[in-house]
Amino acid sequence: MATKATITVIGEAMLELSRGDGDGWNLRYGGDVINTAIHLARAGDTVRLASALGTDPMSAQLCAQWEAEGVDTSLVIAAKDKLPGLYAIETDAAGERSFHYWRGEAAARRMFDLPQSAAMVAQAAQSDLLYFSLITLAILPDAGREALLDLCAQVRAHGGRIAFDGNYRARLWDDAATARRWRDRAIAVSDMGLPTLADEVEMGEADDARDAAARWGAGEGRDVVVKLGGDGCLVAGEIVPIPRQLDVIDSSGAGDAFNGGYLHARLAGANPRDAALAGHRLAGWNIGRRGAIPARDADAPYG
After folding, report:
1. What's the pLDDT tens digit per position in 253-267?
2. Hey, which residues does 196 pair with through a beta bridge?
3. CA–CA separation, 298 vs 210, rounded Å?
4. Which residues are CB-neighbours of 280 under 8 A, at least 6 positions away?
5. Which phi and psi angles does 200 have, rounded to 5°?
6. pTM for the full model?
7. Confidence of residue 216 (pLDDT cuts 50, 70, 90)
8. Looking at the predicted structure, is the pLDDT value of residue 80 above 60?
9. Can you tell me the distance from the alpha carbon of 237 to that of 219, in angstroms, rounded to the nearest whole number?
10. Overall average pLDDT of the 14-23 stretch
11. Parallel, antiparallel, or unpaired: how do β-strands 46-53 and 192-194 relate?
12. 256 flagged as catalytic
């Protein structure tokens, strides 16, 4: 069931060059928040992307593709002197990934520092749910990070909620301590937390799933689900295993798909355990196909 809530995802959406084991290069798109946005839109939710791209043909093509999937791109700012970011992803025979990025001058880094930024923020502040990730914070300068956290406060002041994913990419940060500091500030303004245990361990502060959940404020009125990869997830104090083991063709976007399934179900009124199962089903479908956002098919569990 689709919700009537307006969901705004904010972050970087990029061009994706992908190559599987023995395949040639394919040009697609990706980025953690846009991946989740596509899944939510396919499920019938009202979803907007807030970001910045260029005025080049590829930026226009990206927006056209997202609009075709049902994502509203009216909050995507066009920066005349910038281009979209680009990443290349290679997947081996076991479905494991390696990445290469060209994003240092990407337009999304300036999304809070453009002539249209104030209008974008004013509209995003009216969201019923604002969703972003630690990658969103990572790509922004400090002033942009402060602006994003201020936007979170505005959303909550208007009665909306904040969902935050703890995607940690070490190469985007000066050091783990800086990432932890901004992560903790984001947790403090969030209502829903979506950490991954492997990220928390890599950042050096979690020993196990329950430790990670406690650090994210589970039991303090915050909706927290800790993703455990093939071991399922921890939600509401319970380990929820994946429904069945699947062959992994491409693990790209698995966590983003889980987030889409989980958030859609929670917004539609599902309890945390049932929402986690919905997330597992969508993530399982995703990793059985190529690309961070596989083409929708008859087996896609969008309801």
Report:
1. 899 999 999 999 999
2. 227
3. 37
4. 232, 233, 240, 242, 243, 258, 261
5. -65, -40
6. 0.92
7. very high
8. yes
9. 9
10. 70
11. unpaired
12. yes
